[in-house]
Amino acid sequence: MKFALPVTLTALFCAVLLSGCSAPTATCPKIGDKAPDFTLSSIDGREVSLNSYAGKAVIINTWDVDCAHCDEEMPFFQELYDKYTDDQLVFLSIDTGYDSTSSIKEYLKKNNYTFSVLQDYGGKVLKPKYCFTGGNPYTVFIDSNGIIKHIQPGSFPTQKELDNVVQSLIEQ
């Protein structure tokens, strides 16, 4: 009986405190949703917005210089970049690490990657827009109507798997 009041008050205090922690969470875009717009800078200093590619199929792929899984799938994306024109498919490669522009350019040159790269340090833009958790690679496929058609957390193990997703995207 002696401890009933302090225990009750402590429980009440915790309940009130925890009720404040249930703030509404952001809704993460999912397959079938309109892709949220964003604007990022390229390593060449250009501003690039997703909305500027309205009417085109788009692939958004996140990576960073030190990501081994990203390194494994980058040749797959280079092959896509070489195969399709921007009228057919736009490839937005986004470095989300804290990599310097010079280290990104060095990485691209060393591996003969010719696509342009946008920067989103730590995923500061993609975290709130796409619920990007920072786990690279992360790829979002958007059709020509701006609708998310496929989300791939993690890498593509083969070129064929990536090609299959892209083929279904551009055939729509």
What can you see in these coordinates?
The chain is of the alpha/beta class. The chain has a single domain (32-170), classed as 3-Layer(aba) Sandwich (Glutaredoxin), CATH 3.40.30. 34% of the residues lie in helices and 20% in strands. It is built from five helices and seven strands. The protein has helices at residues 4-19, 68-83, 101-110, 126-130, 159-170, and strands at residues 39-42, 47-49, 57-63, 89-95, 117-119, 138-142, 148-153. Strands 2-1-5-4-3-6-7 form a seven-stranded mixed beta sheet, covered by helices on one side. Strand 1 (39-42) and strand 2 (47-49) form a beta hairpin. The longest helix is centred in the N-terminal third of the chain and has 16 residues, at 4-19. The protein is globular.
Overall shape: it is: globular
Strand order of the largest sheet: 2-1-5-4-3-6-7
Order of helices and strands: HEEEHEHEHEEH
Contiguous helical run count: 5
User: What does the main sheet amount to?
Assistant: 7 strands, mixed
- What's the total count of β strands? 7
- Which fold name corresponds to the CATH topology? Glutaredoxin
Q: What's the CATH C level?
A: Alpha Beta
Helix/strand structural class: alpha/beta
Q: Separation of termini?
A: 71 Å
Name given to the CATH homologous superfamily: Glutaredoxin
Fraction in helix: 25-40%
Fraction in beta strands: 15-25%
User: For the residues shown, what is the average pLDDT?
Assistant: 87
Rg (C-alpha, Å): 21 Å
Q: How many domains, as an integer? A: 1
CATH architectural category: 3-Layer(aba) Sandwich
Uncertain spans, ≥5 residues at pLDDT below 50? 3-25
